Amino acid sequence: MNKKYLNLLGLANVAKGIVSGETLIKSIAANETKLVVIANDASANTKKKITDKCHFYHVDYFIVDENIETISKAVGKNNRVALGITNQGFAKKIKELIGG
Predict the structure, then answer these.
(1) Helix (H, G, I), strand (E, B), or coil: what is residue 18?
(2) CA 89 to CA 94: how far, in whole Å?
(3) Which of 12, 55, 63, 96 is the most exposed place for a label (fewest CB within 10 A)?
(4) What whole-number distance in Å separates Cα of residue 75 and Cα of residue 99?
(5) How much is the pLDDT for 45?
(6) Cα-flanking dihedrals φ and ψ of residue 41, to 5°?
(7) In the sheet that 35-38 helps form, which strands lie side by side, from edge to edge?
(8) Of the candidates 62, 79, 81, 84, the residue with the CA atom closest to the CA atom of residue 13
(9) Alpha-carbon Rg for the chain in angstroms
(10) Those residues with Cβ within 8 angstroms of residue 30's Cβ, 6 or more apart along the chain or in another chain
(11) Residues 22-44: pLDDT tens digits?
(12) Integer distance in angstroms from the first to the last C-alpha of the chain?
């Protein structure tokens, strides 16, 4: 897996193309999120909740090798378990880099 996607997550955050937390769930339901990145150490309940939403609304997602701390650091925020990318360009490139 190419770690360059972490840099793109940071750029997407600066460009206001990232959502997280409860906003992420609402964004998936509103069909605004193009891709979801979930930390590998997210709780089983959280993973299920997010992946079920993604399946229902046909949103691509990846459970990446990085932990919560690494993903949070990439976007400059604390305790980010999952990130939704709302910008189509960033989503496409991140998907390529992760390997999808």
Answers:
(1) strand
(2) 9
(3) 55
(4) 20
(5) 96
(6) -100, 20
(7) 18-20, 82-85, 35-38, 60-63
(8) 84
(9) 12
(10) none
(11) 899 999 999 999 999 999 999 99
(12) 10
